[in-house]
Specification:
This protein has five helices and three strands, in the order H-E-H-E-H-E-H-H. It has 148 residues and is of the alpha/beta class. The chain has one domain: Alpha-Beta Barrel (TIM Barrel). Strand 2, helix 3 and strand 3 form a beta-alpha-beta unit.
Length: 148
């Protein structure tokens, strides 16, 4: 949301201008496999880096069923999720090391995710399935961390 983003940066700029300490920004990363655009995410990260702040990707999950059209996770959506995770984590790893704080996932296994109850439909937004098996998204996460 552009208005929230602009308000956040106005507040950060005001705090920094007044000499009020601020070390970093946490970006809640509750996203879908196709929105928001990677360009928008990178632009926000770049603006934070320009202000000399740490970036914490927090509360990360990547919804694959935002339309509620799936009753089970498909290979296609799973691969789209993997690519999305890889793109986001790659963008984080491309930041200067001095600006990287952490990436925190908002859960471990899909059936424990808040997404199911909140949205009222099946969802698979995390890195591990119900049996603690890593999903392709986990592979994308590791690939981005290692640059492979």
């Amino acid at each position: 949301d552009a208005a929230k983003r602009d308000a956040m940066f106005a507040m950060i700029d005001d705090l920094q201008t007044r000499g009020i300490p601020i070390d970093g920004i946490g970006l809640q990363m509750h996203i879908t496999y196709n929105t928001p655009s990677l360009n928008n995410i990178v632009a926000v990260k770049d603006a934070i880096v320009q202000r000399g702040l740490l970036i914490h990707i927090s509360e990360m999950d990547v919804r694959v069923n935002p339309q509620g059209d799936l009753s089970e996770l498909t290979t296609v959506r799973s691969e789209l999720q993997k690519q999305r995770v890889k793109d986001i984590v790659t963008a984080f790893m491309d930041l200067p090391e001095a600006n990287r704080f952490a990436i925190t996932w908002w859960g471990l296994r899909d059936p424990e995710s808040w997404l199911i109850e909140f949205w009222g439909n099946p969802e698979w937004g995390l890195l591990f399935d119900a049996e603690y098996r890593p999903k392709p998204a986990y592979e994308g996460f590791l690939e981005a961390l290692t640059g492979s």
